[in-house]
Amino acid sequence: MEQRADSFDPDVTRRNYLAASAAGLLGLPVLSGSASGHDVAAATNALVAQTSAPEDPEIPEKGYLVEELGDGIYWITEGVYQILFLTTGEGVVVVDAPPTIGQNILAAIGEVTDEPITHVVYSHYHADHIGAATLYPDDAEYVAHVETARFLDRFGDDNRPSPTTVFGPREVRTPMQDDRQEADDTGGTPADGTPTDGTPTPGGQTETDRRHVVGDSYTLDVGDQRLQLDHRGPNHSVDNIFVYAPDHRVLVFVDVVFPGWIPFQNLAESSDIQGYVRAHDQILEYDFDTLVAGHLTRLGTPADVRTQRDFVSDLEANAREAISTVTLSDVVEEAGPTNVWETFAAYIDETSRVAAEATLETWGPDRLRGADVFMQSHAATMIKSLRIDFGFLGPFGLDQDSGE
């Protein structure tokens, strides 16, 4: 089974990203061009050493860690991204393909097995997690939620091959589908350029020849291994799925929990904040010991999920309090009464500042690494959701005195 690497050089991406990240954190100059393998290893190790806690695994000089979690189940990390793979006796099943790990995914798998990659599972459509999937074999089975397939068909990224097997409801209306239906009705071409006549997408699949399993769950049995794939509503993204290995008590759920760290900015750039909050309880409904969360320095545990759930709960409470207490009079004098946008921006900035400072009193960098970096963005995101999604409008609501 031949691996695909002719159209993509993920090692360049990885070199630039890790070298720049390490240099930035360590106060070193960031140079243009690519770094040597030795420079990358040194920069990566320096970065990991600078940001690691005692429980974090050490990244070897080769630039990645591959470690067995159980009988035939492994994780790979370079210190920033994480993936899972399983050996089955009939082929390798791999979950995701971050470009920052890139070719080292194949090297890591090759260290533990000579089985070919036969199945690829996408956690969700985002390129930072599956943008190196072009490295995997053309004839592998690519499995994802139906919404993932629709996004990938729309974007036409050759580095993210379209799934060959999808699961989910048969009919899910999306703006893309509405656009395509209009094109079908008028005999035209949809605005996204996706053919409507069964022509393959850049990923090689069409909606008619792709295998579609109807339902919110899909069980992938390969050899002696089993993965349970569940879609439980939108969270970080509309298509983000739970990937559960019940025999090993290992759960892959990406871009929601960041073990030991504060989430990435804007509550992990999540598209559905209510779903993001709810996802913490959904994670804890699984019987697992190990969480592969997709990012940063170590694996997670149920305790990490509970810790982050508590943090998000406190953040929401502080955001509600800020909306209730910050008034327009607090900011209008500074902004000027004739500039509506400046006044509103000042109001959002002030409520975000108040909520962030209150949350940092309890959730500082000593509890969640990076808390001082992204806290105000999290507060602003929570306030936006409370206002727009939940109707908690403060001085802009019907009951202006109560903040509701």
UniProtKB/TrEMBL annotation:
It comes from Haloarcula rubra. It comes from the Archaea. It holds the Pfam family Lactamase_B. This is MBL fold metallo-hydrolase. Residues 186-204 have a biased composition (Low complexity). SMART domains: Lactamase_B. Residues 154-216 are annotated as: Disordered. Residues 79-295 form the Metallo-beta-lactamase domain. PROSITE patterns: TAT. InterPro entries: Metallo-B-lactamas, NDM-1-like, RibonucZ/Hydroxyglut_hydro, TAT_signal. Coiled coil: none annotated. Residues 170-180 have a biased composition (Basic and acidic residues).
